[in-house]
Specification:
By secondary structure, the chain is an alpha/beta fold. It is built from eight helices and nine strands. Strands 5-8-7-6-9 form a five-stranded mixed beta barrel.
């Protein structure tokens, strides 16, 4: 057990999927895992372990934002020896050709600042996905009828941003979407020699103002979870 994860030794699988919303973790575990068992409910951040195609998998909520994700990823790595961490979640689309319900597989995750920024000081570290996971996720996406984009995203440390000038430059430089966790996940994975990836579903769009109703989001997110699972065990 750790400060934030109440699972006993052996209850966390070497592969962990990390949605921000703990109730999305519950939905994904009940939908995609066999014999899913609740292994964490400390602070309401639900985690479940079961199997997918015979492979042990944990789906653990990470909360919103890089500081929260950093807590759970650090403890999963240092105390439970997790080897593969895949963020599954929503993001805002930024390019005109990226549509609502599309899937984004994040090759890179740019950010202004993260919990790891103080370590690097003046150095601009470039957080990137694990190549083996990235390649496998792209291959998995190509087998299904889901519009998928591969490229760079932006991990913001604020939800209610007021920087239209920054949005303009990100669009200009090809950033596909914005979310709040992946850059720190990629950085921690690099630091500890683990595999990390973010597979995201576009739930709203910064340019068009479109947004999925909350009741439609879970039904739309199935492809993202299946792509993540197939990539983890390719």
């Amino acid at each position: 057990m750790t400060v934030h994860i109440g699972a006993a030794p052996g209850e966390i699988a070497p592969t962990v999927l990390m949605p921000g919303d703990p109730y999305r973790a519950k939905w994904a575990a009940e939908t995609f895992l066999k014999d899913a068992k609740l292994v964490n409910e400390v602070r309401g951040m639900l985690g479940f372990t079961g199997t997918w195609n015979g492979n042990p998998v944990t789906i653990q909520g990470s909360g919103m934002g890089m500081p929260s994700l950093s807590i759970y990823a650090n403890e999963l790595i240092s105390e439970y020896d997790v080897q593969t961490l895949i963020r599954i979640g929503s993001c805002g689309g930024m390019q005109a050709h990226v549509g609502i319900r599309d899937v984004i597989i994040a090759m890179t995750a740019s950010t202004i600042t993260s919990p790891s920024s103080a370590i690097f000081r003046e150095f601009n570290f470039a957080p990137t996905a694990d190549w083996s996971l990235l390649r496998a996720a792209v291959a998995a996406a190509e087998t299904r009828d889901t519009k998928t984009h591969v490229g760079g995203i932006y991990s913001s440390d604020v939800f209610y941003a007021e920087r239209p000038d920054l949005d303009e430059q990100m669009v200009r430089h090809g950033i596909l979407g914005v979310e709040m966790e992946a850059a720190e996940l990629y950085t921690l994975a690099a630091r500890h020699g683990r595999r990390a990836l973010a597979v995201l579903t576009v739930s709203d769009h910064l340019q068009t103002g479109e947004a999925l109703p909350s009741e439609d989001r879970e039904k739309t997110f199935g492809d993202m979870v299946e792509i993540a699972l197939e990539a983890a065990f390719a």
